[in-house]
Amino acid sequence: MSLIVGAYPAQGSGTLQRQFFEELGRIPSIRGLELPYRAAGGDPWPAGAPAAWSAVVTSIPGTMQRSALDDRFGLASRDPGGRRAALDFVAGMQDYVAALVGSGHRVEAVELHSAPPLHASSDAFTESLNEVLDWDWHGAGIVVEHCDAPRSGSAPEKGFLSFDAEVQIIRRLRDQGRKGITVLVNWARSVIETGRSRTAADHLRYAREAGVLGGLMFSGCSPETTEFGYPWIDAHLPAVEVQGAPASSLLNGGEIARCLRAAGELPITGFKIGLPQDAVSPAERVERLRQMCTLVADAARASGDAERP
Prior knowledge:
Layout (H helix, E strand, L loop, with lengths): L2 E4 L10 H8 L5 E9 L2 E2 L11 E5 L1 H10 L10 H23 L4 E6 L9 H11 L8 E5 L17 H13 L5 E6 H8 L3 H13 L2 E6 L34 H11 L4 E5 L9 H26 L2
Parallel strand pairs: 1-2, 1-9, 2-4, 4-5, 5-6, 6-7, 7-8, 8-9
Antiparallel strand pairs: 2-3
Helix pairs in contact: 1-9, 4-5, 6-7, 7-8, 8-9
């Protein structure tokens, strides 16, 4: 199994980033990076990262930054101005993808999201996706990464469209011949939505049965306050087996194996974890990401063994 790694929450800052990516490049199970596209644009290819690695570009940092300034902003916005602003933002992502490809980096996929929080419309999101799918993405697929939907009794972390709504939108688009779009499950964001660890596997099975599942990213969460923040924060907690992870992190090898069984073979499998910014050296940061790689590989073997008669 080869993995896409969202390393940017763990990379630290300053001149030690090159050392971080040089050492990360020595992990053979990694084939590429999830790169953030922010409100101000995309990050350059990280110094020290192998040039042969591919990329998956995520819009979530910029989407949340723009949503914080304008609650109408989003591809699923009922407000025409907010939806057009989001389409302009995604057009910037298209330029970023073109620049990466022009520099020799293959972009596997672009992750989009059904913002804005609490004010999203399935019809508006469908209209936006139809427009985006007409653009030249230089070989990259479009994947809708699910984020937690609104829930009764507490404020959501993201509050975008429901998983069912996203799956049905993508299913209809694919039935209309739009084959370049799928859905991606982020473990923490599905679990945050319900407070139940099994939700991620449930989402995977549902999307797989609908024929629209295209990816799975592991990222942890906790029902308790940790050094990463308040309960249920979407802060990319490591799996509990990783050195330095909070003891209350709900992500573990068993949950990873359960999700891999539910998902089956996928174009994109990977993880994104954060680490304390002032606690470990680049070599120690890479070691903790190596531990996640090993955990996912071991879980993949375990899930394969479980499926054999």
